[in-house]
Amino acid sequence: FESFVTNQSVEAAPGVAGLRWYEVRRVNGAYSVYQQGTYAPGDGVHRWMGSAAQDKKGNMALGYSVVNGTTVFPGIRYTGRLKNDPLGQMTLGEGVVINGSGVQTTTNSRWGDYTSLNIDPVDDCTFCYVNEYYTAAGQASSAAGWQTRISSFKLPGCF
Questions:
Q1: Taking the CA atoms of the chain, what radius of gyration do you get in angstroms?
Q2: Weakest mean pLDDT among 59-63, 70-74, 80-84, 142-146
Q3: Which regions of the chain does DSSP assign to beta strands (E)?
Q4: Is 67 in contact with 132 (CB distance < 8 Å)?
């Protein structure tokens, strides 16, 4: 079979954003949704502006923006699942790429539009992730002082 993964931002709970993710498979020329789920741990933290990818083993990862408006500043996190984990679940917990430390003070300014999770073609195991976050230093220097972070990680069992 062939497969691809994708995601979208949804309202996972009243007033809380989460990530709806899908794995679509093509078997004998026919496409169908193999599995899907919503990642929203129920802690009041918004997770959106995501990007999804799969490694050569069929493990899947999601990278995304986080914030809650009080104690979680605009930051970057990720989660994942192994190929043989129960369908429809992100089972590997949540990893932190970087915690934000500042807040945006402008209106009509956005972030995360260019979030991208990709597999390194050298080993087909390393997830390379790019997203934006906010720091107190960036806030002090600009009303829209976003920072960009490039990170990488592997899921267990892929080497």
A1: 16
A2: 142-146
A3: 2-13, 16-27, 30-39, 46-54, 60-67, 75-81, 94-98, 116-119, 127-134, 146-153
A4: no
